Amino acid sequence: MSYLRPVTAAVLCAVLSSPMPVSATEQVGQAIRIKTEVTGQSGPLTVNAAVHRDERIRTSQSGLGQFVFRDGTKLAVGWGSSVVIDKYIFDDSQSVKRLSIRAAKGTFRWISGSSKSSAYQILTPAGTIGVRGTAFDFYVGPDGTTAVVMLNGAAQFCGPGGCRQLTRRCDCVVATPNGNMTDVARVNQGVLRRLGTSDALPFLSGGQSLTGMMGGGCGLTAALQRRPEAPQRQAPSTPPPEPKPEKPREPGRPHTDKPRDHTDRPHDPDGPHKSYDHHRGDHDKGRDKADRHDKDHDRDRGERNRHR
C-alpha cells in the first residue's frame, strides 16, 4: 500500500494549491461607511462590520453603504438598493479568481481592485456587465431596466439584445430585460427621463455623496440644478398709444383748452364785435347823412320859391 502515499500526497498538494471558494461564513470584505440604514444577513451593518459571500445587502430609501473587498475592490450601494455577493473565489492573498455580484435593484458604483479585469462580473436583470476597466456607475430599476455609465477604463454590457462597448468617460447604455438596448451615447438628463426618475444615478447627479470613490458628474449635476424652462407666455396685446404730452404754454398766451367766460375772450379786431371808436364813427356817419338830408331839403324849398 506504500505506492498510494505518493498519489495521496500529489492529490493533496493539488487540492491545496488550487483556488478555493470562500465559505459562506468567511469574511470577503467590510463596511467602510454606513449612512442611515444598511442591513446585511444578520441585521443592521455598522462601520467595520464584516460582509460575507452570499450575503444580501439592502439599503433604506435614504441609506448608503460603502464596502471594500479583500483585493481592494470598492462597491458603493446607494439608496433603495438590494445586492448579493454572488461568488468570491480567492486566487491569492492580494487578488481573487472570481468576484461576481448580483444586483437586484438600486444604484451602485464599482471601482475595480488589484485582480485581473476578467475576474469581475456584475449580473443584472437586463444583462451582464463585463469589467474591462476601473470605475463605472450602474442602476437597476424596479422593472429590471439597467443603465451603465462609464467613468474610467472600459466595460462591456451584454444582454438578449446583443453587446455594447463603453470605452469613453460618461459613455452610457440603457437596456431592458426583454432585449431592448440603446446605442452608446454620453449620459445626459434624457437618460434619467428614460429611467423614469431623477434618483437613478445619485452619485453623478449629486443626490448622494461618496467618500474616496472618485468624483465628477458627467454634467448631470448642472443639468439637474438648472431650472426648467418657463412655459412660453403669449405676447401681450398691443397697448393703446400713450397720450402725447401737452406742449408748454407760451408766456402771456391764454390757455385755450378749458372753457372761458365771455369776458375772458380775447379781443378780435376782425370779429363782429365793434369797439367804442368804431361805434363813434358810425354815429358820425349818421349825423353827416342827416346834415346832407337837411341841405337837400333846403335846396328843394328854394327851388319851389323861385317858381312862384
List keywords for this structure.
alpha+beta, 17 strands, FecR domain-containing protein, 17-stranded mixed sheet, 308 residues, single chain, FecR
Characterise the protein shown here.
β10 and β11 form a beta hairpin. The longest helix is centred in the last third of the chain and has 32 residues. The chain has a 17-stranded mixed β-sheet that branches. The chain is elongated and about 100 Å long. Among the domains are: 88 residues, no CATH class; 74 residues, no CATH class. By secondary structure, the chain is α+β, with helices and mostly antiparallel strands.
What is the helix/strand order?
A: HEEEEEEEEEEEEEEEEEHHHH
Please tell me what the overall shape is: elongated
- State the major sheet: 17 strands, mixed
Query: What fraction strand?
Result: 25-35%
User: Which structural class fits the helix and strand makeup?
Assistant: alpha+beta
Distance between the termini: 212 Å
Contiguous runs where pLDDT drops below 50 for at least 5 residues: 11-22, 226-233, 271-276
Oligomer: single chain
In percent, how helical is the residue content? Answer: 10-25%
Radius of gyration: 52 Å
Number of H/I helices? 5
> Could you report the average pLDDT, rounded to the nearest whole number?
79
Number of E strands: 17
